[in-house]
Write a structure and sequence with these properties.
One of its GO terms (molecular function) is transmembrane transporter activity. With about 180 residues, the chain is mainly α. It has one domain. Helix content is about 65%, strand content about 0%.
């Protein structure tokens, strides 16, 4: 992260701010809302337990379920940004004529796996409709609906990545950064 001045000497401190690009995606806003709802529920639990010395019963359970929701919807954000953990070492040592088919296979497997997750999330959501939450008499399918929503959003992003890679014919993405700093 060095800037080159007119004398071409590298400097460690940059005085130019990078241009901020604000994107509005559904999963960002959902995660934002769920996160702050989770923060409010956890604060309510803390306040009632340690200040009022009389804990509200439903806060721990709802916080756990909101954490499940934010995990799966947050996975969609990681999918969109390409920041999921992956093993890329093999690609770096292979010739380009073998890397492109490998990227194609990876994309097909990814779309297939996420589609399978969508299928299983529908099945588990339907099956869990008869079971109720422990403290609140709501069906557990509400909790698993968040898993399904996250899986379907990931599927949408997986198809987008597949189409983008197909347009480049599975060549290296020139816009991809190796280090993402928000």
């Amino acid at each position: 992260m060095t800037d080159l001045k007119t004398d071409d000497t590298p400097h460690l401190i940059s005085t130019v701010d990078p241009e901020v690009k604000i994107e509005h995606h559904v999963e960002d806003w959902l995660s934002f809302g769920i996160f702050w709802t989770l923060a409010g529920v956890v604060f309510l639990q803390f306040f009632t337990r340690y200040v009022l010395n009389d804990s509200v019963a439903w806060t721990e359970e709802i916080a756990r379920y909101l954490l499940i929701w934010i995990t799966f919807i947050g996975a969609t954000i990681s999918f969109r940004r390409g920041t999921h953990i992956s093993v890329e070492m093999l690609q770096h040592f292979m010739p380009e004529k073998l890397v492109r088919p490998l990227r194609f296979v990876i994309d097909v497997l990814t779309v297939g796996f996420v589609a399978l997750l969508c299928w299983f999330s529908i099945a588990i959501t339907e099956r869990m409709h008869i079971q109720t939450m422990t403290v609140i008499e709501w069906p557990m399918s509400i909790v698993y609906a968040g898993v399904g929503l996250g899986c379907f959003l990931m599927f949408y992003r997986a198809v987008q990545v597949f189409i983008a890679n197909a347009r480049r014919r599975w060549a290296e993405d020139p816009a991809k950064q190796t280090l993402i700093i928000d």
